[in-house]
Write a structure and sequence with these properties.
This protein is an alpha/beta fold. The protein has a domain of 163 residues: Vaccinia Virus protein VP39 (Rossmann fold, 3-Layer(aba) Sandwich), CATH 3.40.50. The protein is built from 9 helices and 7 strands, in the order ααβαβαββαβααβααβ. Strands 3-2-1-4-5-7-6 form a 7-stranded mixed sheet, with helices on both faces. Strand 2, helix 4 and strand 3 form a beta-alpha-beta unit. Helix 1 crosses helix 9 and helix 2 packs parallel to helix 3. InterPro entries: Methyltransf_25, SAM-dependent_MTases_sf. Keywords: Methyltransferase, Transferase. This is Trans-aconitate 2-methyltransferase. One of its GO terms (molecular function) is trans-aconitate 2-methyltransferase activity. Its EC number is 2.1.1.144.
Length: 239
């Protein structure tokens, strides 16, 4: 593992979330479609399992198969849901999911593959009537500031809501509904992250200090420019 990845996982270990989100995101997505009472659900790139509880609550008789390729995320999620027989945790790559599902949920990780590529890959794993719900970085203005553009430079495919819809259609899907993630969803991620940064500052080596500084700058940029960029939650189904 490279030094920067070691620093990343040091910072992100033991966080409740690996990206913006809240239970109402799951509830909203489920309300947009008619899913079976015993729906099979995939939580793809589940991180430490932050959305598993909301998925279970939204579809109480459903079964959640949650997967992530990072071992300690899977171990953390297993610890949270070890007693729930309707949750299965797997160490697996989101690019090659197996089995068939009524709902594929992916919070903040589709960009690793690209919207069109991810939806195209996952189509074979959707049952008839199944949908994908995913959140993706999104411009909220036609004229983002230089600061916002610099912060989002690592997302070269980032577009506005219309651009995301175009990528959905390119995969042979239609958009069922969209909504922008709330400020509360962001604070659910950033507030614990700030506490983790404060804890790690004393004794941090140079690589970790760079990671902490960059993350603090990311948080500050979002707070200053939250009206310019965010995450768009999209529910999409094959056509």
């Amino acid at each position: 593992m490279t030094d920067d990845m070691t620093a990343f996982f040091t910072l992100h270990r033991d966080l409740p979330r690996e990206g913006p989100g809240e239970p109402s995101d799951v509830n909203w997505a489920v309300e947009q479609v008619d899913l079976p009472a015993r729906a099979e659900i995939a939580d793809v790139a589940c991180g430490p399992g932050s959305d598993i509880g909301a998925l279970r609550a939204a579809i109480p008789q459903g079964h959640v198969t949650a997967l992530d390729k990072t071992a300690h995320f899977v171990d953390t999620a297993r610890g949270r849901f070890v007693a729930d027989s309707n949750v299965t945790l797997l160490r697996a790559d989101m690019a090659a999911i197996a089995n068939e599902y009524d709902l594929i949920w992916c919070a903040g990780a589709v960009y690793f593959l690209g919207v069109t590529e991810a939806l195209s890959r996952w189509r074979k794993s959707l049952r008839a009537g199944g949908v994908v719900a995913f959140s993706e970085p999104c411009w909220l203005t036609d004229a983002p500031s230089d600061e916002a553009r610099a912060q989002c430079a690592d997302y070269p495919a980032m577009s506005d809501a219309d651009g995301i819809s175009d990528r959905v259609r390119a995969a042979g899907y239609e958009v069922v509904a969209t909504r922008v993630l709330s400020e509360e969803a962001w604070e659910n991620y950033y507030t614990p992250l700030e506490a983790r940064i404060e804890k790690l500052r004393p004794g941090a080596d140079d690589e970790l200090k760079r990671m902490l500084d960059a993350t603090e700058a990311e948080i500050a940029c979002w707070r200053a420019h939250r009206d310019e960029f965010g995450y768009l939650l999209t529910v999409a189904r094959p056509v």
